[in-house]
Each structure stands twice: as structure tokens, then as C-alpha cells.
Specification:
Strand content: 15-25%
Radius of gyration: 17 Å
CATH topology of one domain: Alpha-Beta Plaits
Helix content: 25-40%
Largest sheet: 6 strands, mixed
Length: 155
């Protein structure tokens, strides 16, 4: 049975490097998901994550248990898990959408000025997913230039 599991969480504020965190999360997620037929989307803005995972029930739940144990996530808010007949995010092992004006417009329409995961409920969850489906995927850059600083590889 295939399911969709969506959740939101706040980013652990003591972890400094957002770009590295996002890059690591996406690299690991895309590798695992492509090997396990998991599809989904990750959105990050205002120090909060929103993610939908689609795939086989047992695998998605095991993955979510690992996410809940990840120190980068706090205050995890799980939305209802639904059975699905088809995958909405079939084209992406893990689509990443960065802060978006369309998401802000959606949250304005439901009475909030910006992305606030607590404002998502069972009534507007599918509308929010539709907004994320129409957004372009964003590439996260890796830090460059600092990996070999202070070393003398040719001596």
C-alpha cells in the first residue's frame, strides 16, 4: 500500500550551516529515496521545514522514524497519513523548493503573512501541496573553496 506522509518541523537553531544542512539532507534523501521508490518534496523557509514523503507504507514510516531522530529537526508536526493511488511527486526522489512568493501568497490567503507550518491543517494541506507541485525545483549549492584551506598537498 502506498501512502503520503507530510510533516513540518522547526530547524534546530544551534546548527549554524543551513546550506550544508540542506545539501546533506537532499543528498542522503535523494540517494535513499531513489533506491526505495520514495518520492517527495522538501520546502524550507523561516527556520522551518515542510516535507511530504510518498511511497510504500512500511518504508515511509521507517524513514519518518529516522527523520524524527535527526537532531536538525525540532517540534515535529505530523499531518494525517493518507493512502494514495498515484504519486504526485513521481518525477522527484526529493524535490526541493526554496522560499517562494507563491507560498507566501498561499499563506496570505489563509490569513498568515508568511510560511507558518502550524497554519497548515487537513483542510488546506492538499492546496499547499498543489502550490509546491507547481513551483520550480531549486538546486542547493555546496560550499566551495574551504575544503583544503590550511593544507599543503604538494610538499
Amino acid at each position: 500500500m502506498n501512502i503520503r506522509l507530510c510533516y513540518a518541523s522547526s530547524r534546530h537553531e544551534l546548527i549554524d550551516d543551513l546550506i550544508e544542512d540542506l545539501s546533506d539532507i537532499l543528498t542522503v534523501a535523494r540517494d535513499f529515496n531513489s533506491k526505495n521508490d520514495i518520492f517527495g518534496v522538501l520546502y524550507y523557509a523561516n527556520n522551518a521545514f515542510f516535507q511530504c514523503l510518498e511511497g510504500e507504507k512500511v518504508i515511509v514510516h521507517e524513514l519518518f522514524d529516522r527523520i524524527k531522530a535527526d537532531c536538525r529537526h525540532n517540534s515535529i508536526l505530523e499531518f494525517n497519513v493518507v493512502e494514495i493511488d498515484k504519486f504526485s511527486f513521481k518525477n522527484w526522489s526529493m524535490k526541493y523548493v526554496q522560499k517562494s512568493s507563491n507560498v507566501d501568497i498561499f499563506f496570505n490567503q489563509i490569513g498568515f503573512g508568511q510560511f507558518i507550518p502550524a497554519a497548515i491543517n487537513e483542510e488546506n494541506l492538499n492546496q499547499f501541496i498543489d502550490v509546491l507541485l507547481t513551483e520550480n525545483q531549486t538546486e542547493v549549492k555546496r560550499k566551495i573553496g574551504l575544503n583544503k584551506r590550511g593544507t599543503r598537498p604538494y610538499l
